[in-house]
Fold:
Amino acid sequence: MTHSFDPQKITLPTAHFVGGSYVDGPEALDVRAPSDGRLLAAIPCADREIVDRAVTSARAALKTSGWAGSQPRARLKALHAWADLIEKEAAYLAQLEAICSSRPVSQVVEGDIRVTAEQIRFFAEFSDKEGGDLVPTSDGQLGFIAAEPYGVIGAITPWNFPISMAGWKLGPALAAGNAVVLKPSEMTPFSTLYMAELSVRAGLPAGLINVVLGDGPVTGNAITGHPGIDKVSFTGSTRAGGLIMENIARHGIRPMTLELGGKSPQVVFADADPEQTVDCLARGILPNAGQFCVAGSRMIVQRQIAEEIAEKLAVRFGEESPAATWDDPAGFSPIISQNQLNRMDGIVRAALAEGAELICGGEWFDRPGSFYRPTLIAGVDNASPAVREEIFGPVATFQTFETEEEAVALASHETYGLCAGLHTKDLSRAMRMTGRLQAGTVWVNRYGRSSDHILPTGGWKSSGLGKDLGREAYLANRRTKSVLIDL
Structure:
C-alpha cells in the first residue's frame, strides 16, 4: 500500500478551533510546502481578542463539563477513545502533516501517529492511578498532600514534529484534568487543528482543546502573557524560550515547562563496534534532515578509529536521496524553509572560512525545494560557530580526542545540555562517563528515545526547564496543596 498523495487535492483546515468549532479570521500568514516552495494556504494570526476567547472557552469547558472533577476513569476512557480515532484517521492526518512539514507521509503514518496515540494512552493511564499522599503527623492530626490540575495550560509547539509535539502537551495536560489553549507553529498548523476536531468527535468536551493560529511575536506573546493562563508549556529554541520567560515575568509569575535547544555530543571510544556506532551516529543526525532538538550533531571520536569512522560516515551521508514529503517511499527530508536553509548554509560557510575541513556535503541538492546535502565538518574546535550554534539541519562536526578527560572537555558545551550519546564496550567507563556528561539524557550504545514513553526528557543549562514525557510530565500538570487537620 502506498501512502503517496496529490498535494493539490487535499482540503486544508485554515481557521482557529475554539469552543469546538472553526473560527475564521483575516488571512495573515502564508503556509508553504518545503518540498517545492508552493503556497499552500493563508492562515489567520490570533490577536489578544481571539486568544482571550480561547481562554474563556477553555475555562467554561472545565466548569460546565466537570472535567477536572469527573471520575478519573471517565477521563481515561475519553482519552483512549480520542487516541483510537487519531489512529483511525491516520491517512488524512498524515497528509495534513506531510504537506507543509519536513515529515515524509509514510513515516508519519507508520511512526508519528502511532507514537502520538500511544503517548495519549500512556498519560491517560495516570488519570486513575496517581493521587495525593497521606503523610505522617502527630496523633490527633491528619496531614495529606492533595494534587489538583492547574486549570488552563497555554501550550506552544514547534514545526519539526507537529503531531508528536501536540501529543506531548495535550496528553498529560488533559489526563491531569486541565484544558488547553495551544498554538502550533504557523508553518505546520493543519494536523494539530484536525487533532483538536477529532477530540470533540471522540467525546471530549468542546472547548477543552482550543487551537489558535499565529506567530510567536503576536499570538505566542498573547498566550504567555494572558492572565487566564495558569501554566505555560513550550517546545522550541532557547532564544524563544528566553523571550517567553521574560514575557511571563512581565505579566505575572506562573509555572512553565520549557524544552529548548541542544547541541548534543556523541562520544565514541576506540573499543566501540564500528558498524553499530556509525549507524547510531547517522541516526542521530540524518532523520528529518537533522531537524530535531536532540540531534547528535557533535561527533567526538577517539583518534585510533577516527579515520575509519569518518570514511564510513561520508559513505553513509552520500547515500541519502531527497524526495517530496508526499511521495512514498520516503526520501531525505527538506529543510523547513528557505530562510532556515540559508542560515544553516551560512554557518557552514563561516566554519570553512575559519579553516574547517569539509568531509562531505556543504551544498544544496540540485532540485526544487529546500533540500541540503548531509554535511560533515572536521578540523573545528569548540570556538567554531559550527560547534557552538544549534544548526538544526543535517550538519555535524567531527572532532577527535586521545584521553577520557579530553573527551569530557570536548563534550561539554557552555550553553546546551540536552542529550549526549556514548559508545563503548567498557561498562566501567560507561558508568563514569554518564556521571560526567552534562546532559539531561544520556544514551549508551544507542541514540534516541525508546517507544515506551516512561523516561522523561528535559535539558540542563539553557536546554530547558522541567520535563516532558514520563510520570514527571503528568505531575508537572498538577499542583499540590498541603493540608493539616486537627482532629
Remarks:
- The first strand starts at residue 16 and ends at 18.
- The domain at 7-260+464-486 is CATH 3.40.605.10 (Aldehyde Dehydrogenase; Chain A, domain 1).
- The first helix runs from residue 48 to 65.
- The two ends are 67 Å apart (CA to CA).
